[in-house]
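Pasting as-is:
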Amino acid sequence: MIRLILTYGLISGFAVIGVSVFVIANFGDGIDNGLGLWFGYLTMLVGLSSILVAVKQHRDRALGGVIRFWPALGLGLAIAVVAGVAYCIGWEIYMAATHYTFMDKYADSVLAAKRAAGVSGAAYAKATAEMDAMRKSYANPMMRLGMTFLEIFPVGVLVALASAALLRNPRFLPARSRPLVA
C-alpha cells in the first residue's frame, strides 16, 4: 500500500506543480482577475483525481471490490499528504530557479491592478503595507512551505472524502471481472 500511496501522491503533486509552473512561465504570474485562482484549483482537482483512481485500484485488486469509508479516506488522505509534499518540493525548486522573485512580481502586479482600478491615498497605502507584510512573511521558508502545502492539501481532503464516500459502494465503478484465458 505504501507503493500505491507514493506512486499516486507523487504523480498528483508533480503533475499539479508542473502545470502551475508551465502556466506561470508562459503566461505570467500576475493574473489578478481571479482566473488564475480558478485555473489553479481546477488543476489541483484534476491532478488529485488520482486519489479516486488509487482508492478504486486498491479496493478492486487488494480488497476484492469492497472497501469501507474510513480505510478509503485514510488512503486518500495519505495520498493527499504525499501530493502536498511533492507540490511543496516542486514549488521550492521553481522558487530557487527563479531566484525567489515570485512574491515580488505578484505583489507588484496586485498593486498595479489597484492603481489601474483607481485606488489611491490611504486605501493604496494600506494595500502597499499588506503586500510588504506578505513579502516579508513569504521570505520565511517555513511560512512559505506551510502556505504552499495549504494551497493543495484542502483540495486533496475534499477529493479523498468524495472518493471514500463514492467507492464504499461496490456498485460505483464496479471491479471488472477478468475474462478467462483459454
